[in-house]
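Prompt: Have a read of the protein record below and flag anything odd:
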Amino acid sequence: MGIGVRRIGTITIGQSPRSDMIPEIRAILGDRVDIVEGGALDGLTAEQIERLAPQRGDYVLVTRLRDGSSVRVAEHHILPRMQGQIDRLTAEGVEAIALVCTGEFPPFRSACLLIEPQKVLYHFVAGVARGRRVGVVIPVVEQVEATVKRWSGVGTEVRVEVGSPYADLAELERASRSLREWEADLVVLDCMGFSVSMKQRAAELAGVPIVLPRTVLARTLAELV
């Protein structure tokens, strides 16, 4: 690692490395930042991951495995494993840790800066969406109720559509067209799995500015390091 290079950690609720995401974050941070990855599902077999599946009443999280497939897990199963990754990365000497999931989590223990994308994303959108109609796209229908509650204080009206970044692009395209018909002023792709190319496609179809969590997070990290 060269002189002046800063080390930050990233933690996915799935498995690392996140080859679908981290290169786009690194492109914004540049060569001056070294990214050390960790995943809450690292080291688990397929059978062990299956046992983390959500049951009735659980809050559902959707993430990506190392082989590119997607999986649903219950949040309460993931929290201790995320804390373990925070502890590991802190011990390795990173100066900041970013969670690469837009879910809402209880407080974690961290000796270094801990950046939670959902909080950053919410306040960014709140800062630009006053008096606007805000569309939100999420991965699964089980998250709709919590998403409406989360974003109800932003803008004048909120509409939530389902379109997973881990499924066929047609889902996102349908959601984008629906939000255009609803006359959204701004659209939030509320999942770190959405890519820059997906943002571009959503913008073509929705015809309004699109907010992408991974690039909002990357630019926040760039300010900090």
In short: The beta strands are 6-12, 33-39, 60-64, 70-74, 96-99, 113-115, 133-138, 157-162, 186-189, 210-211. The first strand starts at residue 6 and ends at 12. The CA atoms of residues 18 and 66 lie 7 Å apart.
